[in-house]
Amino acid sequence: MRMVFRWFGPDNDPIPLDHIRQIPGVEGVVWALHDIPVGEAWSMDKILSVKSQIEARGLHSHVVESVNVHEDIKLGRPTRDHYIANYQRTLENLGRVGVKVVCYNFMPIFDWTRTDLAKKASDGSTALFFERNLIEQMDPQEMVSKILADSTLTMPGWEPERLTNLSRLFEDYTNVTEEDLWNNLTYFLQQIIPVAEKSGIKMAIHPDDPPWSIFGLPRIITNRDNIRRLLDIVDSPNHGVTLCSGSLGADLANDVAALIREFAPRIPFAHIRNVKVYDNGDFVETSHRTSDGSVDIYGVVKAYHENGFTGYARPDHGRHIWGEQCRPGYGLYDRALGIMYIWGIWDALEHSCKEG
Ligand SMILES: [Mn+2]
């Protein structure tokens, strides 16, 4: 397991690389060019500028999250070929500088969705929260305004300029079914994976977060059967998943450890975090500790260990603790604690194997 840490780039993340490299066992940074509009190709000079800053701190830049997919590709519009060509060029450029894994997602309009970015727990910490009933009653525009008002920093997936035309985006998806989305994903993969193969990049799709339809939009990367179907579209080691324990774990029907055992060879990138799921379907992000949430993080790490996992892993989100002012879900402290919990489990498993 190769531990990495997400960093949002120069002038875009309150956490300095000098602090990230002090977290035990962190060898690299998960990065992206957040200032390039979705659909445009990433230029070599911008890629090299971020890469050199990361490497100057002794960290590597093997993992990119995310290269986002233009809405026209998800909608299957004729203009998609232009955006797919740009995507291919980005992959070629990233391959040229030694990037090994590219995380992306195929969720219509919204990336991750929550109803509260700072839900207070009894210990005074706050965390991202999803209230199922509320979202069913909420107007999407209301949710966007609330999320954007709650954060002073830019948030990937929540670009205000992209979301200004929300009602038009929703109109575009009116007649798009899940099968349409599968077809559009297939078209995309058939043109992207061969380029990824030539570029030495493993594409790793992130599951939908949460893993069910919201606001009537189709969502397809949600469970075991759909991940199987996805992987069968193109049979290539360069076509895999970012196995996110928190996204998939928000649906208690998903046995995350079992998914890891089944799909291990096709998981180049692991997101490890815990969520507490309530009886009414609400969920809150918790510390990584198994006893704090509904996902058995011990079982998750054990499944990776048993399969000799050599891919990249990062603590996904964390709570906001110790008064830290940070990007929602992306503080230094709780993610660093999460890393130490993951290493604690991993090292104990290593030792017990050696002791026989
Ligand atoms: Mn994730």
From TrEMBL:
Keywords: Iron, Lyase, Manganese. Pathway: Carbohydrate metabolism; pentose and glucuronate interconversion. Its cofactor is Fe(2+); Mn(2+). HAMAP family: UxuA. Belongs to the mannonate dehydratase family. PANTHER family: MANNONATE DEHYDRATASE. Catalyzes the dehydration of D-mannonate. It comes from the Bacteria. One of its GO terms (biological process) is D-glucuronate catabolic process. It comes from Sulfobacillus benefaciens. This is Mannonate dehydratase. The keyword Nuclease does not apply.
